Amino acid sequence: MNKFLSYGFAASMVAGIAVIGATTISHARAVPAFLGQPQVPTDYSCFTNSNGTVTNNCGTTKQFCISLPVDDSSHTLSINVIAPNISHNVSCFGQAGFRDNSIAGLTGLLSPSAFGGSQTLFLPTLSVPSQGNLYACCNLSPTSSVESINY
Amino acid sequence: MTTKRVWWITATLLGLLGVNEYRSQRSETEAMRIEIESLRERQDRLAVQVARPAVVVRTQAGAPDARPAAPPSLVEPSVAPASLAASDDRATDRTARDKRWEDTARANQTSVEEAFAAESANDAWAPSTRVALQNRLSSLARLSSSSLRDIDCRSSICRVEIAHQNADASRQFAQQAFTDPQDPAWNGPVFIPPSQPDANGGLVVVMYLGRAGTQLIKPE
Predict the structure, then answer these.
(1) What ipTM does the predicted assembly reach?
(2) Which of A89, A139, B135, B158 is most exposed by smallest CB count within 10 Å?
(3) A130–B219: do the CB atoms touch at under 8 Å?
(4) CA–CA gap between residue A138 and residue B105 (Å, rounded)
(5) Cβ(A142)–Cβ(A61) below 8 Å
(6) Both B45 and B76 in a single domain?
(7) Which residue of A23, A130, A131, A137 is the best one to mutate when testing the B interface, meaning the one whose CB has the most B CBs within 10 A?
């Protein structure tokens, strides 16, 4: 009985510490791609939305960007995309900006290496300056999609 | 109906009217008393707000910029004390959050600068990367009338220093160099600390370019 009690106490301590840790460190957020917009406004008609997933239905590669609300500095972006095949691929990058929108950081471009289904691109961590901003942008070849962003 | 009865009825009605008027005046007096009390409380709160010390705001460059607290509005919106306290709590939370954000951003910058300083040159990577960067960035710099001052590559990070005539030129250069979807000048992580003014009225921008597949900023 005492053994059970001590195990229970230890388990509750671990759970409590985990909860405290989670509430003080984790700031994970997720947004659907539909929160974004085309980099070039005349490309709006190229993109279709299906339950938050945005697909390029035009015949050429188009860029689609999503503004990500932030209230702290370090953000690691992971972007869920679908590329039908290697000749219809997706490349994405993250960009941090200063308050005046000048560039403060970039992740570099990343593309999936598997095709035909949902893939997650894990981008390098960005440092957003105080009062700055954060974006995720994807170059979508015809029929490729961007689903959602976690950051 | 006798005259006496009519007089009694009239007197009773007048009496009722008088009582009603008295009650009405009394409730008005009570309402005015409550309003005066409320105004006194508001006056006390405003006096406390005026007596608060100046708020110190830290600018991007890091220099503290002392500003007096904004004077309270003379016409205070009618809010209950509980919501005033909640508003104060929110302001405190925002200040703490902004400070944490600024501190983390500064720590990230220090971490990148220290990581670069700690690296030694990798002969298999640094010289060729430096030449490639020199070629790409110098031609882009000419387009925005900027001048490439220095490129120093180590084992996984290059430090680039460039002088721009103004913020627009700096913005144009960074966009052309790093966000071209077809052929960016660099395809790894890039970190750009706040620019510094130079002696000629322009800006000096330092950029840290990380090798593709590496992290410049440590994940939290």
Answers:
(1) 0.81
(2) B135
(3) no
(4) 25
(5) yes
(6) yes
(7) A130
- Arithmetic mean of pLDDT, B37-60: 56
pTM for the structure as a whole: 0.70
Tell me the per-residue pLDDT of B99-138, one tens digit each, with 9 for 90 and over: 999 999 999 999 999 999 999 999 999 999 999 999 999 9
- Look at residue A144 and give its three-state secondary structure: coil
Residues in chain B: 220
* C-alpha span between B189 and B209 (Å, rounded): 6
CA dist B181 and A143 (Å) reads: 18
Alpha-carbon gap, residue B100 to B119, rounded angstroms = 29
Domains for chain A: give ranges and CATH numbers: 29-150 (2.60.120.260)
Distance in angstroms (rounded) separating the CA atoms of residues A74 and A100: 19
pLDDT by residue (tens digit) across A29-43?
999 999 999 999 999
> Could you tell me the two tokens for A131?
């009062």
- Chain B CB contacts of A129 below 8 Å: 60, 105, 194
Q: Identify the CA nearest to A96 among candidates A121, A130, A59, A119.
A: A130
Best B182, B190, B208, B211 residue to mutate vs chain A (most A CBs within 10 Å): B190
Residues of A in contact with B170 (CB under 8 A): 102
Find the DSSP H helices in A26-151: none
Residue whose structure tokens are 């990058």: A93
How many domains is chain B partitioned into structurally? Answer: 2
Range of the domain at B73: 3-56+69-102
Token duo for residue A137: 């942008």
Q: What tokens does A58 get?
A: 């035009």
